[in-house]
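Revision sheet: structure tokens.
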Amino acid sequence: MIKVIASDMDGTLLNSKIQVDEEGVKAIEQARAKGIHFVLCTGRMYDDAMQLINHANLYGPAICMNGAEIRDEHGKILKQIPIDKVSARYTYQVLTDLGMYCEFFTDIGPISPNKDKGIELMKEIQGKVHPDFSAEEIHRYVEERFESKDVHVIDDTERLFNNEDITILKFIAFSSDQAVLKKSKKNNSRHREAWRLALLFPTISKLHISMLKKDFLYNIMLKKWASQWTKLLRLVIISMMFLC
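Predicted:
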């Protein structure tokens, strides 16, 4: 018996306009009417994710930042797994040496060491991800991203690494250069022992790298969250198109 439906956001629950389709909302409500729980799984931060699904009158527990944080349906933090500052400093240095733009996801919100570079790079990337968007739409989307997410700017990253009051939960590194992305993956393999000691798990895509602790993975955190109902649990991790 299916007990839980877990859905990603980007490319799954969200359409090309970064909105939740009405069909997806209906499918979720139909599942809930049958007693099936719905949980959101996303690489986004909680406030960012909720802002998008609340527009569609959706709610529910969320596994955010690729598993770095779990929240219940009321927004209460159930679990966080931070990245230690030594690992974060090392990884940041490796990636910035390659010329990549890095952004930190923390317990006070996203932090950028170079907002202007981030904006320009995000415009370039969004143009590739959404070729149907006009230059004006891309500009508006990127500007709104930095404003709505209240991205904090910090000129000296050592202030972040040395601040014990700020917790780093995830960070992402962007590059529109495929050669740079491949080199970053190669560097990770070359320094395998150091990366293992740093307890980091890199996931590479065409446009960015997300740096996570090994036990951040969705499936691990999802099983921990869902175990509150039954040990013998059937999970369905899907694209919303299979629900509709």
